[in-house]
Structure formats: C-alpha cells, structure tokens
TrEMBL record:
Record keywords, A-Z: Cytoplasm
Function field: Required for resistance to DNA-damaging agents.
Compartment list: Cytoplasm
The keyword Thylakoid is annotated on this UniProt entry: no
Domain (UspA) ranges: 26-157, 166-302
Gene3D superfamilies: 3.40.50.12370
Cellular component terms per the entry's GO annotation: cytoplasm
Keyword Oxidoreductase: no
Record-linked PANTHER family: UNIVERSAL STRESS PROTEIN E
Pfam family, one: Usp
Protein's name according to its UniProt entry: UspA domain-containing protein
Length: 316
C-alpha cells in the first residue's frame, strides 16, 4: 500500500489540569502509533503537530501562570517542543523521516492550514476520552476535521494489539466510494482482516418510510448492479478472508451502525462528499447522525475536488 506520502498526526498533550503533560495521553499515543505504522508501510514523511491555545503564549511550564517575555524560564511551548522532539527521535530511530511543529490557535484550523501548506494526504487524530462509547462529540476537533479537512482523516480508537481484525467499507458506488473500497481492501490485506462491504440502497425516488413505492423488478435490478460492481472491485484483491457483502434498504446511517455493532467492526472506511453547494459538509446528513454513535475508528476519504472552507492566513 503506497497511498499516503505525507502524514500529519495531531498530538494533543493536555491531560488533567496540565496544558502539556509529561507523557503523551493515551488517545494521542494511539494516533502516533497508527501514524508511525502507516509511515513505515507507505515509506511516507511523518509530521507531528501540537496546537496550544492562543492565550497560553506566555505561560510558565511548571506553574502555568503568566510570565513576562525574556524571562529565561521554560514556557509551555518550550515544554511541548521537548515532548514533540522525543516523538520525532522515536520515529527517526525506526527509519522514518519525521519532523514536528508547535503552534498557537484552534487545533482543527491549524491542522487544516498545515495540510494546505505542506500538502499532507492524511491526517490522524485520536478520539478524546476513549473510555466513553461516544467519543465523537459535536463541535470536537475530530468532527471539524472530518467536515472540513481537504485530505483523508483517520480518527483512531485503541485496539488491543493495534492490529485490525474487522474492517467495514461503506460504499456509495460513486468515485469516492471506489477510493474508499480500494483503501479498505489494501488495509484488510495488510492486516489479514475480515472485510465487510456495505451498500445502502439509493433508488431513484426512493423513500425509506415507504419502500414499497419501488417495484420488485427495479429493486432486484438495482441490487444485482450494485453487487456486480462491488464484486468486480473485490476481484482485484487477493484477500486472506473472503469479503462479506451487505446490501441494505435501511437508511444509510442505520445500516452502517447496525453492521458495525453486529460484526464487531474496528475500522469504518467511507467516502465523504460536499452537498447543497456548501463546502465541508460530509455525506449529507448521514455522517452527522452517525458519528456520535461510533465506537470504532473511522477513516474518511474526500472527493478529489473537495474544497475546504478553511484558507491560509495572508502571511501563512
């Protein structure tokens, strides 16, 4: 798999009452491990980014109180740079080209600006509070990145051995769905994972509440065409385990959630699209309803013509 060439890992260092903890918190540790693994697999450049709030520019690293410029004391930014430098050293010791950056601002905005500057093709972040079943909270950094980042975004949840055993591709049969399918198959092959492929029917003039409005002949032809397209794509890969194809007439978000729960899926791979002319909306309302329910990791693929509403600052 040589899909990714430049990977950005967002590292959150705050823990408890500390803006910068002595160790990398578990959610970010998972993101770092996943980024390191992918960088090795893809022979990619690995970049670590930590974003501090703007008001923390002159905080003492130990007391976390405001101090004057030219004070000679270590600031929280200095401390963050030390922690990030250790991540770079660790990656380089494994033969990976790596660098780090510490900036001030909003985490999701600065991550996207870094993508625009450096042309990263994947952003990895850890879901906060991974002990909770609903880590994707509205307004969180993960949600904002999934909506507005111009490249693929992987939001990680811990797995016991960091090996994926069950992967689900939510395939909409569009070009971005084809990209998600290719990536999902590649990951399943590398991990020797069980691959599930789900398509939720989108008939012309179809209504989930009144499905009988679609004729049986039309429904059967639609299903045959969908399964044929998926089978042709799967035939290009030699997976360790035979892929299981799921066809559903449920609403897409319900179909995806049900499959994740039933099959113990650890990674959901899906395409995202902008609709109604508004940049940054993902998969219409489907993902908006789905994301707060997810207990697994998600890898969201963007269409090649996706445009982020975030722009670089004039002197960025």
């Amino acid at each position: 798999m040589k899909r990714f060439k430049s990977i950005l890992v967002g590292v959150a260092l705050a823990e408890g009452d500390r803006l910068v903890s002595e160790r990398v918190p578990s959610a970010s540790e998972e993101a770092v491990a996943r980024g390191t693994w992918l960088a090795k697999a893809n022979d990619a450049q690995l970049n670590f980014l930590h974003v501090l709030p703007s008001w923390a520019a002159n905080l003492d690293a130990n007391t976390q109180v405001l101090i004057q410029n030219d004070h000679g004391q270590q600031t929280v930014r200095d401390h963050a740079k030390e922690v990030m430098a250790k991540l770079v050293h660790q990656a380089e010791s494994e033969g990976i080209a790596a660098e780090s950056r510490v900036v001030f601002g909003k985490s999701w905005v600065e991550a996207i600006r870094q993508v625009l500057r450096k042309h990263h093709d994947l952003v990895i972040v850890g879901a906060k509070d991974t002990s909770q079943p609903r880590p994707f909270l509205a307004g969180s950094t993960a949600i904002k990145l999934l909506r507005k980042c111009p490249c693929a975004v992987w939001v990680t949840r811990p797995t016991p051995d960091r090996i994926l055993h069950s992967i689900l591709v939510a395939h909409d049969l569009r070009s971005v769905g084809n990209d998600a399918m290719e990536l999902g198959c590649s990951l399943a092959k590398i991990h020797h994972a069980k691959l599930h492929v789900l398509h939720a029917a989108e008939y012309a003039n179809y209504d989930n509440i009144f499905p009988t409005l679609v004729s049986l002949d039309s429904a059967e032809q639609y299903r045959q065409n969908a399964e044929k397209q998926i089978a042709e794509q799967l035939a290009k890969f030699h997976l360790a385990h035979e892929a299981q194809v799921h066809f559903s007439t449920r609403a897409p978000d319900l179909a995806i959630w049900h499959c994740i729960e039933e099959e113990n899926v650890e990674l959901l791979v899906m395409g995202t699209i902008a609709r109604t002319g508004i940049s940054g909306l993902i998969t219409g309302n489907t993902a908006e309803r789905l994301l707060p329910l997810l207990s697994c990791s998600i890898l969201a693929i963007k269409p090649r013509d996706f445009q982020s509403p975030v722009t670089l600052e004039p002197h960025g």
